Amino acid sequence: MATTDQSASPDAAPTRIVLIRHGESASNAGRWISGLETCGGLTDLGVAQAEALRGRLAADPDLRPDAILVSTMRRAVHTAEIIAEPHGMVPQQHADLIERTSGEAEGLTVEEYTEKYGIAPWTDWENPLSPGGESGDEFASRVFSATDRVVGEHRGKTVWVVCHGGVIMISAARRWPVASEATSIAALPVVSPINTSVSEWLVDPAGLWRMARYNDHTHLVGVTPVDPQAPAAL
């Protein structure tokens, strides 16, 4: 949960954590469970989404980043490289920002997974998707630690974090006590963020988190259809 820093000046600027979901990936389009080894990168639509976001962010000087952080998955790295280009910045890759790991199920389609394991993927919060993957609690613990690390290393700065739907949902759900009782990611009190959507936290000097916006994807008008049922973790 949020931490406090009693030594922080109450007049210090808040830390802005801008969470950006990657553009549409090959696994989103093909509905397979992807990981570091099977991430197919962005589709042509995913590139177009990232380019639309690049234009929007470049036109907003108030959101100019002091740092750009990114998951080590290809789809996130490609998205970060596209939106970072106007700022001449190299995104910093961090392995603790990746999507929930899936273990030996990596590479299976949703249908193949359901047939093999007798349950739809991401509906069991307590257990890993398959041997070698993370449980929901392990994933949440990693996300909490990663986002707290980002704040600790960039106090008072604006930081873009290009990551994944599950990471953004867990980050948002940390503000609701019910999140600790969720039995699946579908039970979290937040919707799956759209590809290249923007969600933003303001973290005050005392370490209190306040959400400024969630799943803001107005830059996609005319670029892509929106499927609110698309799984966050593909």
UniProtKB/TrEMBL annotation:
The molecular function terms of the Gene Ontology recorded here are: phosphatase activity
Recorded hits in Gene3D superfamilies, A to Z, give: Phosphoglycerate mutase-like
Where substrate binds, per the record, is at: R21, H22, G23, E24, S25, A26, S27, N28, R75
What highest taxon heads this organism's lineage?
Answer: Bacteria
Any one annotated GO CC term: cytoplasm
Q: Which PROSITE patterns match?
A: PG_MUTASE
SUPFAM superfamilies the UniProt entry points to = Phosphoglycerate mutase-like
> Which residues does UniProt mark as catalytic?
H22 (tele-phosphohistidine intermediate), E99 (proton donor/acceptor)
Query: Which PANTHER family does the protein's record reference?
Result: ADENOSYLCOBALAMIN_ALPHA-RIBAZOLE PHOSPHATASE, BROAD-SPECIFICITY PHOSPHATASE YOR283W-RELATED
The identity of this protein, by name, is Phosphoglycerate mutase family protein
- Which source organism? Ilumatobacter coccineus (strain NBRC 103263 / KCTC 29153 / YM16-304)
